[in-house]
Write a structure and sequence with these properties.
5 strands, alpha/beta, Rossmann fold, 13% strand, five-stranded parallel sheet, 194 residues, 10 helices, binds adenosine monophosphate, single chain
């Protein structure tokens, strides 16, 4: 069983890399941002609520996010494992993830952290805005807010998972395929050691 957090700031390449990894390892991909965006498109109550935070670059509240994630995890009782993309983003979310996995008799394999400096992130998000259609990519103030939220609320998770021996840093700058190969070699090591 392989349960991986693909971690990193907005624009680090989590979505791009997740696509490659799910295909190779046959894992269920849970992107909280994507689930919120799907709910916004479908104009659900959750979507309307999430949009009010996302448009400002803020995090959706922990209670709402955790409840949603748990229901998504429960939709895949037979999963060979999960790639969590964009979750957890806070310490309470990390603790909740631990509880969900324990309930399933599982544990986290590793947190793979794509590390990219801020000037590069801003460039990437501005470029992505041209095609993503995401309002939160198009506004420089919202981008700055998302980076600040990452630094203040999400970055402390590295220490949290490092203390458990689960933090693996990956240089997120370079060719997409090169980074993907590095991620795969780390995951292969986890499988062998698993
Ligand atoms: P992402 O697609 O991961 O960049 O997420 C887009 C936005 O969705 C974020 O800026 C947050 O507003 C919201 N979001 C995604 N994941 C979470 C999470 N784990 N906790 C709280 N808010 C989240």
């Amino acid at each position: 069983m392989l349960n991986i957090i693909l971690f990193g700031p907005p624009g680090a390449g989590k979505g791009t890399q997740s696509e490659k990894l799910i295909a190779k390892y046959n894992l269920v991909h849970l992107s909280t941002g994507e689930i919120f965006r799907n709910n916004i498109k479908a104009a659900t109550e959750l979507g309307i609520l999430a949009k009010s935070f996302m448009d400002k670059g803020q995090l959706v509240t922990d209670d709402v996010t955790i409840k949603m994630l748990e229901s998504e995890v429960n939709k895949s009782p037979d999963a060979k494992g999960f790639i969590f993309d964009g979750f957890p983003r806070t310490i309470p979310q990390a603790n909740a993830l631990d509880t969900f996995l324990t309930k399933r008799g599982q544990s986290l394999s590793a947190l793979l952290s794509l590390e990219v400096n801020e000037p590069e992130l801003r460039l990437r998000l501005a470029e992505r805005a041209k095609s993503s259609g995401r309002p939160d990519d198009a506004n420089p103030e919202v981008i700055q807010k998302r980076i600040d939220v990452y630094n203040n609320e999400t970055l402390p998770l590295i220490k949290h998972f490092d203390a458990q021996g689960k933090y693996i840093a990956i240089n997120g700058i370079g060719e997409i395929n090169e980074i993907s190969n590095i991620l795969c070699s780390k995951i292969d090591e986890l499988i062998v050691c698993g």
